[in-house]
Amino acid sequence: MSDIQTTAAGRRSGWANVLIYGFLGLVVLLALAPTAWVMLSAFKTGNQIFSGQGLLPAPFTVQGFVDAFTQIHLHEYMLNTLLYAGLGTLGALTAAFLAAYPLARFSFPGRNALVALFSLALALPLVGLATPVFFVVRELGMFDSRIGMVILYSALQFPFTFVVLRAFMLSTPPELEEAAMIDGAGYFTTLFRVVLPLTRPALATVAVVAFVNIWNEFFFANLLLVSEENRNVQLVLAGFKSQFGFNVTGAVAGATLVMLVPICLFLILQRQVIAGLTAGAVK
């Protein structure tokens, strides 16, 4: 190839990179703009928010955060949501881990049927589950109860968690487990001392996804929770109205606090999450 052709190809590649990165930058900006607007608005007055004047808070105020804690006691509902998200995620991870290992490593009659059954649950629309879930939860005596919501959220997050963990286990070599069993390790010793550390990246990835899904859940909370003390933070923010009308400053301040929890969780586990997402990409 001549020098002229090489230079022309380099210019085309340079323009292509500019277009690609420009498009990616635009997508990132569109994705982050609503979140940034909410967080900045949390420090504005109600008049400035409604007037749309200025991007930065002027004057700067934390009255919205004061209202969120004093008017609706947001911290109490955040604790409820933390309970649902934490225990629901733990339940889904435990059940999926125990189910994924034998279905990834051992052959037995009905294995493929079980895998298909668990995976098929991912395709079910949540709206279609509303009626059967309502009657099952009510018949079990767990309507409007915290334990009922924890069990329900564990079950809802189980299919996705199972699929990811099983796929990760299939991508890891079984030699370490076989060596442990040859040395006399039992099933559960191998499972918790060999398999569990190896699947830590995948566990972190699905834990973050499950936690965020439960943290942001509104549909089933609205369907199954009636008591004020059992409500999650999404229900409370949706109905955040003061005696004098909609308190927009308190609402965006509350939304900011609610968004910070999953963001902090991701920042804490980001190394494990990225390792889990990229596992298997390079062989």
UniProtKB/TrEMBL annotation:
Q: What keyword terms does UniProt attach to this protein?
A: Cell membrane, Membrane, Transmembrane, Transmembrane helix, Transport
Which PROSITE patterns does this UniProt record tie to the protein? ABC_TM1 (PS50928)
Family matches, as Gene3D superfamilies = MetI-like
Q: In terms of one coarse class, where is the protein primarily found?
A: membrane
* GO CC annotation: plasma membrane
Q: Where does the ABC transmembrane type-1 domain start and stop, copy by copy? A: 78-269
What's a GO biological-process term for it?
transmembrane transport
> InterPro entries under this entry?
MetI-like, MetI-like_sf
Q: Where would you find this protein in the cell?
A: Cell membrane
Q: How does it sit in the membrane?
A: Multi-pass membrane protein
Listed transmembrane segments: 20-40, 82-101, 113-137, 149-168, 180-196, 203-224, 244-269
Pfam families, per database record:
BPD_transp_1
Q: Which family does it belong to?
A: Belongs to the binding-protein-dependent transport system permease family.
Name of the protein described by the UniProt record: Raffinose/stachyose/melibiose transport system permease protein
Which species is listed as the source?
Promicromonospora sukumoe
Q: What is the lineage of its organism?
A: Bacteria, Bacillati, Actinomycetota, Actinomycetes, Micrococcales
